[in-house]
Amino acid sequence: MRTAGREPRGRARRLGAAAAASLLALGLSACAAVPSGGPVVEGAGGDAGSAAGNGYVRQLPPGPQPGVDPEGLVRGFLKSMGSFEENHSATREYLAPEPGTDWAPGGRVLVYEDSSKLALDTRVADDGETATVRLLSSQLAAIDASGQYVPADSGQVIDITMELVRTGDDQWRISQPPDRLVLSRNDVDLAYRPLNLYFFNRDRSTLVPDPVFLPVSSDRSATRLVKMLVEGPTGWLDAAVESAFPEDATADVAYDAGRVTVEVNSAAGSAKQRFGMGAQLVWTLRQLTEVQQLTLRVGGQEIDIPGEEGESLVTGNGNWDSVNPTGVTGDLRAYFLRDGQMWALEGDSGDAMPQERRVPGAPGGGGTVLEQHAVSLDEDKVGGIRAGGREVVVAETSQGSEYSTIVSGGEYTSLSWDGYGNLWVTEDVSTGDGGRQEQEDAESAAEDTERGDPDTSPSPSPSGGDGGREPGTRVWMLRGGADPVEVDAPDLADTEVTALRLSRDGTRAAVLTDNGTGGTELSVGRVVHSEGGVTVSGELPLATELQNVVDVSWRGGDQLAVLGESEDEVGQGYLVSLDGSTETTSAGAPPGTDMVGITAAPGLPLLSSTEDDHVWMTNDRISWQRVIDGTNPVYPG
C-alpha cells in the first residue's frame, strides 16, 4: 500500500507506454555481439524445455505386457498417452505395425477425470482374431489446437471405438487407434505446463495473459511458445485483444545457450509496433527461467531490446513495466466503510500495518449510505449502490464533491470499474416474486439510460403472476462513469448475477451466478468492444470443485481471489487460476469469525471483511491479522 502523492493511474500508464515506444525509436542499447544478418538456426545448447517444466518427471511407460487381453491393452494404451517422449514412442508399441508408423494424433486433446470412471465395452470376433473396444467416459475438458484448456459442457461424453487385431506372435494390437490424444486429468497435470501468451488490450496500455497448455518434454518449449505467440491469441480471447505482430506474420525461432533469436517475416513497422512485439516476447519468454537473452529481427532489421548490460529477461524487465499484465503501474490504496464514511488504508509496504485516512468529499462525508461501492482504477471516483439497491451514484474523491445519480429505478446488484474508466453495473430483471415490482420503475430506468441498441427497449417486469420467479440480469456499462449503455450479455440474460468484476485490463469479466440449487458458481467471460456496442460472452466455468463462491476479486491478470466453500471446509479464501485446469489454492481464513467478503490486487495483501465488522489482512495466505474496524474493503477496480 502506498502513501500520499498520487497521479491518475490511467494517464500515468498511457504516458509510460508512449515514453517507452519513443525511447525504442531512438535506439536503446542491445546485446552488441549479436549479428544482424544470416539465417536463424538451432544451436547445440539444448532448449528451455526443462525450464518450462521445472519438476517435470519423464514418463516412460513399460509398454504392453505379453498375453494382455483387449481391454487391458486399451487401458495400457490410454495410460501411455501421457508420455510425449520421443514422439509418443511408448504409445506406438500398442499399435499394429502400419498405424504404429503413421499414427499422428492431432486436433483437440480430450480430457477425462480418471481411469476409474472409464467404461470399456469389449467385443471379440467369433474367430478370435479381431476385436472392438468402445470407450465411454464423461468429458472433463479439451485442450484445443491453440493450447487453450476448455472445460466441457455438462453431460458431454467421450465416445471412441478402437479396432484390434492379433499379430503374428499372437499378441493383441490396435489397428484403428483414435486420431487424437485422450488423457486423464492427472496425465494433463504431469505432461503439460500452463503458460501465458501475452497480447494487448484494446488501447494497448496493458498486456493481457492468454493461458495455454504446452506439452513438457524434450521438445523445444521456447521456440514453440514464440511461434504460438506470433500466430495469435486463442480463439476464445481473440476478439477481445490485439497483437503487435501482423496477422500474416510468421517467425523463425532458434534457441541456443540461453538466447532466443526470433526472425519475424514481416515489415518492421512503426516504433510503437516494434515496442509492442518486444514487450509481448519479453513477457512471454520470461516465464522460462533458462531464457536469458532475446534477439529480435523484423523484416531483416534488428530491433533493439532495452536493458542494461548483464540483465536477463527474468530480472531486467523494468523497461516493459509500463504495459505490465497486472494493469497497474503503481501502488493502490484499499478502501473500506465505517459508519457510512469511506476510508483509505495507506502504508509504507505490504508488511507494515496500514494507516487509515478518511476519503475527501462525498464518499468520506457519510451523507449517502451505500450498500456496495467500487473505486476507479485512477482512484479519482467512487461508484456506489445506495441502500435499498434502487439507485447507482458516482462522486469524485475530492473536497466538496457530491454524489450524482447515474441510473435509478432498477434493482442493482453489483458494480465494478474497468481499466478504461468505465463503471459496470448489473441489474436484476427477474420476473415474478423478487423481480422489479412496478411498471413505473422500468419506465424510470428507461428514461435514465441510453440503450446500446436503439431497437431494444426495456420491457416492464410483471409482479406477482403465479408466484414463480424467472431469473434475469441486465448489464450496464457507464462510459466514464456517467453515460449508461446496455451491454449485450447473452450468457447472463437468463440467470441471476450476484457479482460481476471487470479485470483491470478491461478484457474479461469474472461473474458469480446462481446455480439454481441455492449456491453460486464462478465463470469468466470475454469483453469485446465494437462499433455495434459492447458484449460479454463465452463464459468459461472456474473453480468447479468449490461448492459455493460468494465473492470474487482480481488478484492479477491471470488469477482471481475468491471466497468459497469446498466439500469439507467452511468458507475461506482461495486463489483461482484462469487457465481452467489448475486446482484452487487455499488462502485460509481469519480465526474465530466468518468471512463475508474478499478483495485483492497485484502484489498487495489479501483483505477480508468479517461478520463482526472487522477488516483482516494476510500477506502469506496462512496467517491473518485484524487490521481495522470497518466493512466492505475494496481495492480499486
Automatic annotation (TrEMBL):
Q: SUPFAM superfamilies recorded for this chain?
A: Tricorn protease domain 2
GerMN domain residues: 222-307
Q: Which UniProt keywords apply?
A: Cell membrane, Lipoprotein, Membrane, Palmitate, Signal
In the bilayer, the protein is annotated as: Lipid-anchor
Instruction: Identify the stretch(es) annotated as Disordered.
Output: 426-476
The record's listing under SMART domains reads: Germane (SM00909)
Where is it located? Cell membrane
The UniProt entry lists the main location of this chain as membrane
Q: Record's Pfam families?
A: Germane, Gmad1, LpqB_N
In the UniProt record, the signal sequence range is 1-32
Instruction: Indicate the family of this protein.
Output: Belongs to the LpqB lipoprotein family.
Report what the protein is called. Answer: Lipoprotein LpqB
Name the source organism. Streptomonospora algeriensis
